[in-house]
Every structure is written in structure tokens, then in C-alpha cells.
Amino acid sequence: MAPNYVSPGVYTVEKDISDFTPSINTSIVGIVGFASKGPTNKATLITDQESLVRTFGEPSEAINGQGLEGALEILEQTNAVYFIRCADDTVAVDASATVSIGHCPAIAVSGQANNNATARYGIEVPVTLRIQVKDSEGVAKFSDNGGVGRDYVVNVPNARSQSEALRSVIGGALDADLVGVFNDGSFDSGLGLSGAIVGSSAGSGAELTAKICEGTTFNEANGIAALRAFDPTLNPTANFGISATGEASSITIEGAQIVTTGTNNSLSYLVQSLHPGAGYNGGVRANGDTSGNSITLDSLGSQNFVVAVNDQGVALETFKASLVASGAFLEEVINTGETNTTSRVIKGNIVRDGSDVAVTALTKFSDSISQLTTGLFDISFQGVVASNKVGGRFAKLVGTAATNLAGGTNGIAATENGRATSLIGDATTEPKTGMQALDDDVINVGVALVPGVATQEVQNSLITLAETTQDFLALVAPPYAVGTVQDAIDWTNGQASTTGSRTTAINSSFAAVHWPWVKVFSTFDGKDRWYDPSIFAARQMAYTDAVSDTWFAPAGFQRGRLTKPTEVEVKLNQGDRDSLYSGGNIVNPIVAFPQQGLTIFGQRTGQRTPTSLDRINVRRLMIYVRKVILASTQRFVFEPNDEFTWSQIEGVVNPFLDDIRRRRGITEFRVVCDETTNTPLRVDRNELWTKVLLKPTKTAEVIVFEINLTNQSADLGTL
């Protein structure tokens, strides 16, 4: 809407005329392959070698192909690689670890409020309370009295009530001084408790022993009398399972697994790797280093604990969680689904005998506390037994030691056809799988490869994808041990005689073939290994983009010299190079030159028809021009189809192409967007056409010096 100026004054109008074409990174490489861990069937951006190994694991000869090796090498030259880890869902398995859920042994304590203990019961001396806690292995958590426990004095005569007296211990000394025993602290009236003594260890073997006697010096013979003094109406035989003679003057409460009503199935927390793979399996390497993932549980008290996720022995992430608290419940902190988790490594859920249990917190079981097994004993110093009122609130994960994840598999099919299916993927699913994940408007890949895999179906699918999207150049190579120059030529021409070899010729400007394979020292296994030459072809293209531009040839001594490989599988002479590169053949040779080292000495695309697109530098130029024009002209969609818009389009494209001209990518260009390209019929169809004419800069691949000998009388200026 045009501004409406009414009253006199000075006004400002802001107009943005700062249009420019965006910059697009041409050195991003897409790699499709297998790995031992990490996201599957997703184009994952990796910016450095450390991130690659941390996310997808280390390379290994046990992993088919050379996807990880290729990514590591290329990341030495560029800081942007999209790695697509492929996996067969039918054989891929998440690594896992199971931690049992138990409850702590507990004694519920209640007393007579607002009644003077001395006046009611005539107690004139303190009462000694002895407590002993054992973990699930039967080991005492503390022992100050010859291994039998620790004594606490309950000053009943000085207290107004039994409850008040016991709280002085439960809420004070035990919580502050007694390791392994903690106080509930809530005295939740809804539970019918005045307090609770709870052992910190959980599990069926955990034990809490409480003994009580009259006086400040513990004497087990006085136990029954002391109990009766607390409540004269109490029948110790019926409520405590002890005899009136004092033969068993202790009260023992054993912990047990939490179970649901009517079953004996135990609950546990199942931790799984966020993605499948053997790389998540914990263990120790031959050299003593820790491998894989593990979880460690550290208790923070009655309800809270820390889950530490360890990656190769190093704490990767930690989560403070609870089994009972809403908002901090285990499955709210580390959720169960791959798309709904806060952890980068694990997922988890509560299970019953391996089956999922729909629960958000243990306290939200309909009758959570009553669902505890028998064997929990409660005491009431007032004769009202608070049966099964303690335990559910003190559910804990059993064990605190590091637990290794195990059982994960990589999802690599056993057959070549099965592996090919995983690598090719499916374009009809959402999300797309395998290499089809490269077909994404969000990612920007200039070069793509499946290193170490020479399966015809895989390579042809990659080339077809490149042709369909027109977004990248597909790099392929003959398999290792092709043997001779003629074998390499036959392979690219679809005439290979070896079983399982290529039977169709490569013929596409969106593909490039490099050969032979090169030898590189692997730092991961400490030995020389033969590498797919496509890896280093991609690396040199990234190098070319860094030192020159994408339309410069990634070949020759300036930009094609390989710095890491030490040897070629087959040494090529001049005649070999001529055969690979001429007569309709499309193999770019890697040559060992004396004093120059290994060098890529060709830049043919897979196109056999002699046009400008039979060279890599021109094909990569056209990929770049197309991407930039599309990105910079999207805003003109739905604009009026008239001369003004036509002029604007020319005003965007012309400066962009002129910049390429000045940077030696093209020698001449012209952009036409007017009534000649936009006829009335096209306008009526709501179509806007622009014609772009380019003269790409050709490379000097053959340099000839004509050397003439003359006699002494010749005038050199006229020759």
C-alpha cells in the first residue's frame, strides 16, 4: 500500500534494493556407507574427524565398504560431509542393558501424638534404637558396634510423645550421620506415618534390622520390655513375629521386587542404544582401552539418582532422574522414542519381563503401595499397623556399578544383494532411506560416492540419482584387483567378464570414474590398506574449491597431486593413459610420476558424446550455476509476469555470471528475459522463461610447443 501523506512534514521511506546472489558451498561431499553406530538412513552433517568417530564409530575391515575411511580422508580437506549410514532393519539390533527396579527395606513408625510419654507409660529412662542396613549382597552399609549396627538414643522421657521422640532420630541423626539410611522427611499423613526408617540399598537381598531396648546401653535382653513400654497393648508375637522371651528381639524387614497385583513378574528399566550397532556394545579392547557405551547409576537419596551415559569410559552426558517424582521421572527425562529423547546415545523404558509397561511413574500405579510383595513388615508403636504403607515411595534402581550395553548389531546384510538394497534405499518412504536421503532440498551436496562398493546396481542408482536431482557429481570406480588397463576399460564399457562385474556401460556427464586403487596407511589398525580412488578424487575436488573455484579442473600437478597415498595398484605409462582417456574411454588415471608423486591426470566425466559436458570442470560449473540461479530467483514466483519482473531477473543473473567470467569460469555469456522468451502463449500459461547462454572456459589438457630451427639469415620477426 502506498503511503498516504496528509499533513505537512518530512517523511522517510525505506526501500531495500540490496539484492545479491547467495553463496553456495561447492565442497560438501555426500558419503553413503555402513557403520557400527549412529543414526541410520539420515543425511547427518559431520564437520570434523572426531565428530565422525564419536557419532558413527571407528572404521574396521569387518564393516563392508569404505564409507568411514572415505569420510575421514575427505574431512582432512573439507569441514562439511554428509554421512548416510545404511542398515537393514531386519538384522539391525539395539545394544541394551537391563537394570532391575527394587525397593528399599523400610520400617514405618507412628506414635501417639500430644500425649506425654512419661505420664502415659511411666518411662523414666531413654530408649536405645539399634539399626543395621545390608545391601543386596548382604554387605553391611555401616557397623559401629562390632559389625551389628549403630546405636541411637531416643530420649522419650524428654519428649511430649513417642512420635516426637522418634522424629528426633529419624529426621535428625539418621539423616545427617548415618550413611546408608535416610529419612523420608515428609511424614505424609496420607500414608498414616509419623516417619520412616529406610535403608538406602534396594533389591531382594537388602536388609534393614531395627532393635530396641530400655536404657542408653544396648541390651538385647531388654528388647521386649522396651517395646511393651512403648505400647502396653502391643502383642509382639502377632505383630513382630518374635517371642515374648526375647529370643529374637530384632525386627528384620527384607526388601523385594515391586510386582503388580496378581503376578510375580518383576519390573526393570531397559536401556537401549538410540540407534542399532555393535559400536554401542561396551567392553575392553585388547590394549585395555574401554570401548562402547555403558550406564552408571549414582544415588542421590530416597527418590533421586543420576544416570551417567559413558562413551568409551568417558562420561558423555548425565541425567538427574527419579522413579517417583512427576516431571523428573525416568521416562520423562530419557524418553522412550528415537524422535522424542533428550539423550544423544540412549533411550529407555520400564518393562515387565521384556515387555513394555505403560507407566509414567511408579507412584501412579493404581495401588502402587499395596502391590508390594508380602515380606514387608511394618511396626506401629501405637498398635495400629500401617501395613504396606512404606516401600513404594522408595523404589530405586538396583545396583550402581557401570553396566555395559551389549547385543547391538550393525544391520549389514550377509549377502551382496542385501547390502546393495540397504545402500540404494527407498525413495517412496518417509523419510527416504539409503542414498535416496541425498534427494533433499535442505542439504547441499556437490559430490557423492559409495566408497569401497563396486556393485553395479549401487553405482548405477547413484548415477541415476545425480541425473535426476542434477545436484551433484557421482564418483565411482572399478573394484579392487581389476588387474589390467584393459580390464578397467572393459569394466566401464559394461564388458567385464568377471562374475558379478559390470554389464552396462557408464555414460553420463553426472558421473566420473577414477582408477587404479591407492595404498594408504591406516592409523586405526596400523597397517597399509588399499583405498577406493573415488575417495581421493572427492578430496581433490574439495581442495580445488578451496584454492581455486569449482570450475577449475581437479587434476594435474596444481590440484590433482595426492599427498597421503604411497602406491598405486597398477603403474600406468603413457600408452596406458592414452588408452584409458581416449577413443571414447572415460577412465581418469591416477599416475605415479617420478619426483611428483601420485597425481590424478584426467578429468573426464562419464559422458561419451564429445561436448563441453564431457569434462568435470564444466559439469561442476553447471551444477553450481543451476543451484545459485534457483536459490536467487525463488522470490520471483507469483510476481507479475511483465517487463519489470523480467528486468529484475536479468538484474540478478547478469552480475552473478559476470563474476564467474571474471573468475575465469566462462568466457562469455548472455541472459535474455524479455518478450522474445516470454511469448503471449507462455504468459497465458503463467510461465516465465529466461534464456541463459554460456561459453565455458575450456582447460588446456594438451599443450604443444612448435619448435622451429632456422638458418642464421632468417628474420625471426616475420616467421
Task: Explain the layout of strands and helices.
Blueprint: E1 29-33, E2 43-46, H1 49-56, H2 67-74, E3 81-85, E4 96-103, E5 106-109, H3 117-121, E6 127-134, E7 150-154, H4 162-177, E8 181-183, E9 195-199, E10 207-214, H5 223-230, H6 236-240, E11 250-254, E12 267-273, E13 283-284, E14 290-291, E15 293-299, E16 304-311, E17 314-322, H7 330-333, E18 346-352, E19 355-356, E20 395-397, E21 403-404, H8 416-424, E22 447-449, H9 456-469, E23 473-476, H10 485-492, E24 511-515, E25 518-522, E26 527-531, H11 533-547, H12 556-559, E27 567-568, H13 574-581, E28 587-593, E29 597-600, H14 616-633, H15 643-662, E30 666-672, H16 680-684, E31 691-696
Parallel strand pairs: 1-3, 1-22, 22-23, 23-24, 24-28
Antiparallel strand pairs: 2-3, 4-12, 4-20, 5-9, 6-7, 6-10, 8-9, 10-11, 12-18, 13-14, 15-16, 15-21, 16-17, 18-19, 25-26, 25-27, 28-29, 30-31
How far apart are the termini? 72 Å
CATH architecture of the largest domain: 3-Layer(aba) Sandwich
**Classification by helices and strands:** alpha+beta
The spatial strand order of the largest sheet comes to 2-3-1-22-23-24-28-29
What is the count of distinct domains? 4
- Main sheet overview: 8 strands, mixed
Question: What are the segments in which pLDDT stays under 50 over at least 5 consecutive residues?
Answer: 110-117, 182-194, 227-265, 363-393
Number of helices: 16
Shape: elongated
- Radius of gyration, in Å, reads 39 Å
Count all strands and give the number. Answer: 31
- β-strand percent reads 15-25%
Specify the helix fraction band: 10-25%
